[in-house]
Amino acid sequence: MQNRWVRIAFTLAASFALGTGVAAAAEEGGHGGGAQEVHWESWQAGNEVTNTASLQRGATNFVNYCLSCHSMKYMRYSRMASDLGISEQQLRENLIATDAKPTDYMLASFPEAEAVAWFGKVPPDLSLVARYRGTDWVYQFLKGFYVDKTRPTGTNNLALEGAAMPAVLSDLEGVKAAVLGVGVSAHGGKRVERFETVAAGRMTPEEFDGFVRDTVNFLDYAGDPSQAQRRSIGIWVLLFLMVFTVFAWMLKKEYWKDVH
Question: In whole angstroms, what separates CA 69 from the centre of its chain?
């Protein structure tokens, strides 16, 4: 529990740092570059809910970076562990708060009153965010933070203008400034000509991309935990119906042969 509060404090401190020194660095100009225009609205999660290893990594990411503020009120720790092949020992040691039980729901530890004081609102529950918004949108949101000194957090988001959430993954991704173009993109969002690196993160772009995909994969699973099993069963149901159709057609031919 103590470690979770340490993470919250670190996240908030990093967020406000973005609004001062980081924003000033963006004004001076970062380094980096890229194509003439970034088609961020075409970014796709490409996640696979049948990839258990990815789901396990995504669960770890969620617990370490999201659960402090965002609940998952429809998911129990024990159900997650059972579905993802996580032992009870691993669950207790790595994925569960010290004062929680495996049968508890995955609830945020940040008091609502303090969340409102910090962010202006209670952070939303993420149980169904992947179903409501879509996995591609969640992927774009997590990768869409950029420096904006006009915002209280020092950052803004391409997928959600004026997001109250700070760039909690900036220590992994790094901090980037967006060079915005005139007008809007083909999809109606902000037109981004390029990103410029203001501060490097602990991960390479490829590593961070994998981190986000795993996290989105876990959120997709959490929104519908039985979807992989349902799809697997669905294949056998379709095969049965195909075979049954053949026998039904042969039976019909047998019954009607004298009529014709």
Answer: 14
